[in-house]
Amino acid sequence: MITAEQKPIEEIIEYIAPYDRILLVGCNECVTVCAAGGRKEVGLLASALHLHSLKQGKTVDIKEITLERQCDPEYVEELVSLIDSADAILSMACGCGVQTIAGRYKDKPVYPAVNTKFMGASESQGIWAERCKGCGDCLLGVTGGVCPVARCSKQLMNGPCGGTSNGQCEISPDTDCAWRLIWERLKALGMEKRYIEVMVAKDWRPAGGGGPRRIVREDLT
Amino acid sequence: MKTDSRLEKVFASGNLAVTSEAGPPRGADPEKVKEKAKHLDGYVDGVNITDNQTAMVRMSSMAASVIVKQMGMDPILQMVARDRNRLAIQADILGAYSLGINTMLCLSGDHPKFGDHPTASGVYDIDSVQMVQCVRKMRDEGKFQGGADITKPPKMFIGAAANPFADPFELRVLRLAKKARAGADFVQTQCIFNLDKFEEYMKMVCDMGLDEQIHVMAGITPMKSAGMAKYMKNKVPGMDVPDEVIKRIEGVPKADQAKEGVTMAVEFIERLKECKGVHGFHIMAIEWEEQVPEIVERAGLYPRPEL
């Protein structure tokens, strides 16, 4: 999923300070799962903003709504009936959602309430970690199901650097050395020989080096 | 001979090679480069010129290498994948070679997090193994990484680094094999303090026949003090400093600790001269270049062969 974290409240307050009527829009997808911008977080943020404005001796009108998917024009259309009663939109979706709204409601300022972080998976309750960089040319089939692009701090393609310490990455004891994980997997699968093959310089075009990426499915258009 | 590198000639002659290193200054004063390098003149076959070492901005490795070259010495141009994409790497190799530099070391580079610009993004377009592969292709096939012909290919003698101590241990020899396969001519190892473990590593290297494919230079660092020994043990990632080493340095009065560190370095070299597959020594006297001549002499590696 795409993970996100709420921005510092001070930054959000600064964004919306010029406005009296805010449309606060959550998303029911990834940001709900990672507890950053779903219905519950929309309610909490609205309360916090109300409280802050009361302290300032002001009132702010905040309309709350959580869309099924903010990155989907079909659902973003649901805001049509609310848009005129708002001076600005505050989005709790990832950057894809924010931009879908900005593209649809061209004369309305839209502000992000979260920082979009990474494509990751849940490691345990309340902990998410990066797993994919969307490089567009998946290597997991040759690296034992562990991604060196997303999980090696130096994106090394041919084994661990000299900084591995007790199986962890030199940048943090909380970060597993990706190549230690890859090696353990290859061993468990009896595929150690695979390691010795030199992985050649990667083509970064599918990773974004060729400019912003699109997928066009003729069968669906 | 693949190149005009002095280091290549020394290896070919069957002599043990000796290299050392000099970190360029954090400023634009060429005298600082000369000051460091002059200590090494005549005592080594090559001087590594580090490339933004520890991810701190310094005078460029290429500029400092040229200054060392102008002194009549043999610079080894270090190049890190952290700071350059494949275009910049190849452009710098052409430039370096055009200025008389014929030996280089391909490295990943320390992570920006540890340096003085922790907000920088690392490049890591290619890794150190792929860099070796690229330099070899430029030299032996006369082609750029992208496939086009080079009109006057740079003939670089290609080095890389090896850390026999970082884990997983069993992968360390395979990583060396990979660097050899990619085209590295020699490797310089991480500082060796755990000699038993290093000899175990070298046995695996020889069992795989890698000593026939790549020249391994054993990394030697004299400890200046017990404090430095402890720092290296606890703070430097991938460093293996056994307790006996720390105890031995601690066992002498503070004023004599540096002397003891030098004696240990000389003893390490004497012992590793006998280790099959070790073709030379890379002496890393960190900010202590003036100490290198004594180590080289006492270890019986002076004078350097006339070639």
Overview features:
heterodimer; A: 221 residues; alpha/beta; Rossmann fold; 2 domains; 3-stranded antiparallel sheet; 7 strands; 30% helix; elongated; B: 307 residues; TIM Barrel; 8-stranded parallel barrel; 8 strands; 40% helix
Structural write-up:
The complex is a heterodimer of chains A (221) and B (307). By secondary structure, chain A is α/β, with parallel strands linked by helices. Chain A has 2 domains: 116 residues, Rossmann fold (3-Layer(aba) Sandwich), CATH 3.40.50; 74 residues, no CATH class. Chain A contains 9 helices and 7 strands; from the N terminus they run βαβααβααβαβββααα. In chain A, the strands form 2 sheets. Chain A has a 4-stranded parallel beta sheet, sandwiched between helices. Chain A has a 3-stranded antiparallel beta sheet with strand order 1-6-7. The mean pLDDT of chain A is 97. In chain B, helix 6 packs across helix 7 and helix 10 packs across helix 11. Chain B contains 11 helices and 8 strands. In chain B, 40% of the residues lie in helices and 15% in strands. By secondary structure, chain B is α/β, with parallel strands linked by helices. Chain B is globular. An 8-stranded parallel barrel of chain B has the order 1-2-3-4-5-6-7-8, surrounded by 6 helices. In chain B, strand 5, helix 6 and strand 6 form a beta-alpha-beta unit. Chain B starts with 5 loop residues before the first helix and ends in a 9-residue tail after the last helix. Chain B has one domain: Alpha-Beta Barrel (TIM Barrel), CATH 3.20.20.
Task: Explain briefly what this protein structure is.
Chain A has 221 residues and is α/β, with parallel strands linked by helices.
CATH topology of the largest domain in chain A: Rossmann fold
Q: Whole-Å distance between the termini of chain B?
A: 13 Å
How many β-strand runs of chain B? 8
Mean pLDDT of chain A: 97
Shape-level CATH architecture of the largest domain in chain A: 3-Layer(aba) Sandwich
How many helices of chain B? The count is: 11
Using only CA atoms, what is the Rg of chain A? Answer: 22 Å
Number of helices of chain A: 9
CATH fold naming of chain B: TIM Barrel
Q: Distance between the terminal alpha carbons of chain A, to the nearest Å?
A: 25 Å
The percent range for strand residues of chain B is 5-15%
Report the average pLDDT across residues of chain B: 97
Number of domains of chain B: 1
